[in-house]
Amino acid sequence: MKAVSFSHVALTVADFNRSIRFYDEVFGATLVGVTTEHPRERLQGFFGIDDPDPSLKIGWIRFPGGAVAELFEFTPGLPAEEVVWNCQGITHFSLNVRGTDRWHVWCLEKGVEIVAPPLQSPKGHTFFFVKDPDGNLIELIDNKHMRPILRWLGALGGWIFRRTMYKRWYR
Asked: Of 17, 35, 113, 122, whose CA is between 20 and 30 Å from 144?
């Protein structure tokens, strides 16, 4: 058995409308669905919201290329926690871009909080991190030399790598 494809990533945000504007204006991610009707018992039980009258707004945004993020706005909400890289769990999500230097300038012009300027990895790709309005880390990466492999080889590339240069990780 194996998964068909990646579905989505979910983020809890403090202000739904602010986040929708941010992801649309900075990355071109459009709102494709919203739901606000949730039984109180589900919010209190499944989500563990300790409040007599909780609410939840969920929206789905679609990035160019098809990736989806699900945005949750809970009332009441808890404050964000700073990302700790060596703590188990999700630290960030990543968007493929072309030209990290141009994206760096774009993000500066949009007032996006930038964690560090673009860097080049030993493998040749460039990347940098920004934060959304709630402090969620987003990596902007230009895979450069890996584009043909990621685009054209897809599953075949994975099959080849699994049996050659990365086989020690599959023992």
From this structure: 113
* Joined tokens for residue 15: 């202000």
Q: What residues in the chain have per-residue pLDDT under 50?
A: none
Same-fold call for 1-78 versus 91-171: yes
Predicted pLDDT at 154: 64
Most distant CA pair in the chain, distance: 56
What pLDDT was estimated at residue 169? 76
- The pTM of this model reads 0.84
Q: Residue 130 burial by CB count (10 A; 0-12/13-18/19+): exposed, middle or buried?
A: buried
Q: What does the alpha-carbon distance between residue 12 and residue 79 come to, in Å, rounded to a whole number? A: 10
**C-alpha span between 131 and 115 (Å, rounded):** 7
Kindly list the domain boundaries of the chain, sorted by start residue: 1-78, 91-171
Q: Does 1-78 carry CATH code 3.10.180.10?
A: yes
91-171: which CATH architecture? Roll (3.10)
